[in-house]
């Protein structure tokens, strides 16, 4: 980025009102419309069975070498590295991942998305190293993780230290990025299959971010500190408080809030000059600020927080060049950024029902409201505001870090990883009672959706009636597979809608095998969760791991435990048994039955010895989950990233500005320019940009904004499919800190030639305009 902000105003807000897109039916309930239609289901299966999508070879990434003899470390020092790389895949014509809304097809870009990599190593033992990835994606996934591990292996011996046990792949859980890249069939169906291009953009960017972190490795120190995101910067609420109240009253009394308001920050500081290389933070808030009818790619609220923090670092004298700020999810399951609560959009002016979030018995009109919901801008203003609030709290903590932080004094770095099959897995509860988990299944409350994205038809949250819910949907469910009596009993009181763990035609619909992984750096332990842990699940899990670390003398000082996810293999939710009994969305989406959360806790605590300083072994690898990349089908040319051709209209040329900006504007205005376009799927411009704003400085045009900036929006529209025409609108929502001056808007594109099929780059410029 060429521009640097001397100040990021705390009250900067967007006040534009883009055209509304009619609301779509939401969340996985859309599977009711698509997956659960018998005719379409059979058609989908036939198509999948007949069309094999072979994953293309991965482009070679240049091999880097690192110093063979590290400087001698003093006590409390680590090898530290940070890196960041672009993972923005197809921004148009591909469904977004998160809401599973058939109508949420990308039309452009508001903010590029990234992989942020953090490497920590024991300077006295090259084999003891960890990689924590924070992807601006809906979740970590086994297909992506496999690709990352393969990419690292291909880089040669310098990267052999990074592998199955010590690479954690977490997602920020944003719901506004390109989809079609997950391993299992269920999430592929609404995105019309698997897109190799979408998948590869994430994998290659993640590997590149690790390369950059590896290349930056140097001796440094770590410290952590906590703050609360509350009061005027409150950023999350519990979207299922009725289920939360099912937890024991004496347990709830230990906590002030029904969600965790805390933010934990880990600071990476370079020893050579004392500069800060980056921060890795954990805070729980769903990435659902951008609404399900938004069709511009963003990193959602966590993307905003990282963006603001990294921009502030550009003028921070304590920050090293290349400063990276990663904001990882924590126990996010029942949190929401829609902090004004859930209201009925039916004209009644009433809040949704407390027990099941309905309005007049239906879910469709019950929606959570963000802090700026009245702006009617698809969640843009609320998203920015939630991200800004977390940034304000995090920045205040960072500014006082030396006086409030705790150093990580033990240089021991350890990790473990194993796979666990959760199908009828038996284990003891803390009181000694034997229980078991179940093959994966989703309940009726899952199809009811959430207040962040409500369901449809007659599905509602909180429905744990084991009697037939609706004869039609009962028939549809049975056509897919009929749960065995053992599965029904295991999952009780969940009424099973989709028995995905026992559906394998044409390949696995959902995971039964999950990653069990933890990382340790001194007294800091990181639980890596494959599921979205609810607030109380996360609290119990952290407390149990901390107690086990003390009892097994894993740490030399009081342990600090954080939880990051959803990671590695996406396994939906992990509600407490009490919340599971209510069967709201979170409980109905807890795949492995009522004891799933306790299974995770047991597996973490029973493997904790592998985090001991003297440990040199790993648990048994466990069963290998299915790798569906080569089996996954693409149902359309779009998923195969095939652009037929582009053409400019007669008399026009690519990049020509057909609608010019006005001659002058005031700060706060929206500046639009329209260009003759080409399909951005021709070139994702990774590490580059589709858009730019240039300012005339001392007679030379200087870039001051690009795709990374929240306020610069790229919208692509196909205007004639047969002739290959398209247009691009670039909108600059000028910020309060915009400097007066002369500017122009720039469009970078790539067109595909008819017949020949070659890709040619071009650039277009608007006329100049003045901002006074």
Automatic annotation (TrEMBL):
InterPro entries: Ceramidase_alk (IPR006823), NCDase_C_sf (IPR038445), NEUT/ALK_ceramidase_C (IPR031331), NEUT/ALK_ceramidase_N (IPR031329)
Any one cellular-component term (Gene Ontology): extracellular region
Catalytic activity field: an N-acylsphing-4-enine + H2O = sphing-4-enine + a fatty acid
Hydrolase in keyword set: yes
Binding-site positions, Zn(2+): 173, 286, 532, 573
Keywords: Hydrolase, Lipid metabolism, Membrane, Metal-binding, Sphingolipid metabolism, Transmembrane, Transmembrane helix, Zinc
GO biological process, one term: ceramide catabolic process
GO molecular function: metal ion binding; N-acylsphingosine amidohydrolase activity
E.C. no: 3.5.1.23
EC top class, as a word: hydrolase
Gene3D superfamilies named in the record: Neutral/alkaline non-lysosomal ceramidase, C-terminal domain
Domain Neutral/alkaline non-lysosomal ceramidase C-terminal: 606-769
Cofactor binding note from Swiss-Prot or TrEMBL: Binds 1 zinc ion per subunit.
Active site per UniProt: 336 (nucleophile)
Pfam families: Ceramidase_alk (PF04734), Ceramidse_alk_C (PF17048)
Cofactor(s) for this UniProt protein: Zn(2+)
Ranges where the Neutral/alkaline non-lysosomal ceramidase N-terminal domain occurs: 78-601
Transmembrane segment boundaries: 33-55
Family classification: Belongs to the neutral ceramidase family.
Protein name as it appears in the record: Neutral ceramidase
């Amino acid at each position: 980025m060429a521009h640097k902000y001397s100040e990021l105003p705390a009250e900067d807000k967007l006040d534009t009102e883009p055209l509304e897109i009619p609301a779509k039916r939401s969340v996985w309930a859309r599977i009711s419309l698509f997956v659960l239609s018998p005719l379409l289901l059979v058609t989908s299966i036939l198509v999948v069975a007949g069309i094999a999508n072979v994953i293309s070879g991965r482009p070679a990434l240049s091999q880097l070498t690192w110093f063979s003899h590290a400087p001698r470390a003093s006590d409390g020092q680590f090898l530290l590295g940070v890196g960041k790389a672009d993972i923005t895949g197809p921004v148009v014509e591909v469904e977004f991942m998160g809401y599973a809304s058939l109508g949420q097809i990308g039309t452009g870009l508001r903010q590029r998305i990234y992989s942020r990599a953090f490497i920590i190593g024991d300077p006295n033992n090259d084999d003891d190293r960890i990689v924590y990835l924070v992807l601006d994606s809906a979740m970590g996934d086994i297909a992506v993780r496999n690709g990352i591990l393969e990419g690292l292996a291909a880089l040669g011996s310098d990267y052999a230290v990074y592998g199955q046990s010590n690479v954690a792949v977490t997602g920020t859980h944003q719901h506004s990025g390109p989809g079609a890249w997950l391993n299992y069939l269920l999430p592929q169906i609404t995105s019309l299959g698997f897109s190799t291009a979408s998948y590869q953009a994430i994998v290659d960017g993640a590997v590149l971010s690790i390369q950059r972190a590896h290349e930056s490795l140097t001796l440094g120190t770590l410290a952590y500190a906590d703050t609360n995101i509350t009061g005027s910067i409150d950023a999350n609420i519990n979207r299922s408080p009725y289920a939360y109240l099912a937890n024991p009253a004496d347990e709830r009394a230990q906590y002030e809030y029904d969600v965790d308001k805390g933010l934990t920050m880990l600071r990476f500081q370079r020893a050579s000059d004392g500069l800060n290389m980056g921060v890795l933070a954990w805070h729980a808030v769903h990435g659902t600020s951008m609404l399900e009818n938004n069709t511009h790619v963003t990193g959602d609220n966590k993307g905003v927080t990282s963006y603001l923090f990294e921009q502030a670092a550009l003028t921070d004298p304590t920050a090293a060049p290349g400063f990276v700020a990663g904001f990882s999810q924590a126990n996010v399951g029942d949190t929401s950024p829609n902090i004004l609560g859930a209201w009925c959009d039916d004209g009644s002016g009433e809040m949704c029902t407390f027990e099941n979030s309905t309005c007049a018995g239906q879910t469709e009109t019950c929606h959570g409201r963000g802090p700026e919901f009245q702006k009617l801008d698809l969640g843009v203003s609320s998203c920015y505001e939630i991200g800004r609030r977390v940034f304000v709290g995090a920045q205040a903590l960072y500014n006082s870090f030396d006086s409030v932080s705790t150093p990580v004094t033990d240089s021991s770095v350890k990790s473990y990883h194993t796979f666990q099959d959760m199908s009828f897995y038996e284990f003891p509860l803390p009181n000694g009672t034997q229980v078991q988990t179940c093959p994966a299944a989703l309940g009726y409350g899952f199809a009811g959706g959430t207040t962040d994205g409500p369901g449809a038809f007659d599905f509602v949250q909180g429905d744990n009636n084991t009697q037939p819910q609706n004869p039609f949907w009962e028939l549809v469910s049975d056509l897919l597979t009929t749960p065995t009596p053992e599965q029904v009993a295991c999952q009780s009181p969940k009424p099973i809608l989709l028995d995905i763990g026992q559906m394998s035609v044409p390949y696995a619909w959902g995971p039964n095998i999950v990653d069990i992984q933890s990382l340790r750096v001194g007294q800091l332990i990181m639980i890596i969760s494959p599921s979205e842990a609810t607030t109380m699940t996360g609290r119990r899990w952290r407390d149990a791991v901390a107690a086990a670390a003390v009892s097994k003398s894993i740490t030399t000082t009081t342990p600090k435990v954080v939880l990051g996810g959803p990671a590695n293999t996406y396994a939906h939710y992990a509600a407490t048994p009490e919340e599971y009994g209510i069967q709201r969305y979170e409980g109905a989406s807890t795949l492995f039955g009522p004891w799933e959360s306790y299974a995770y806790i047991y597996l973490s605590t029973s493997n904790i010895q592998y985090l001991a300083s003297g440990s040199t072994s790993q648990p048994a690898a466990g069963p290998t989950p299915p790798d569906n990349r080569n089996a996954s089908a693409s149902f359309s040319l779009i998923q195969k990233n095939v652009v037929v051709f582009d053409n400019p209209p007669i008399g026009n040329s690519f990049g020509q500005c057909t609608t010019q900006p006005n001659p002058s504007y005031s700060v706060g205005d929206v500046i639009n320019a329209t260009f003759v376009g080409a399909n951005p799927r021709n070139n994702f411009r990774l590490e580059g940009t589709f858009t730019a704003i240039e300012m005339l400085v001392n007679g030379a045009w200087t870039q001051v904004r690009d795709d990374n900036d929240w306020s610069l929006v790229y919208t692509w529209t196909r205007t004639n499919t047969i002739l290959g025409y398209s247009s691009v609108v670039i909108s600059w929502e000028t910020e309060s800190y915009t400097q007066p001056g002369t500017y122009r808007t720039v469009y970078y594109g790539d067109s595909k030639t008819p017949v020949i099929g070659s890709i040619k780059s071009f650039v277009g410029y608007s006329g100049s305009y003045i901002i006074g």
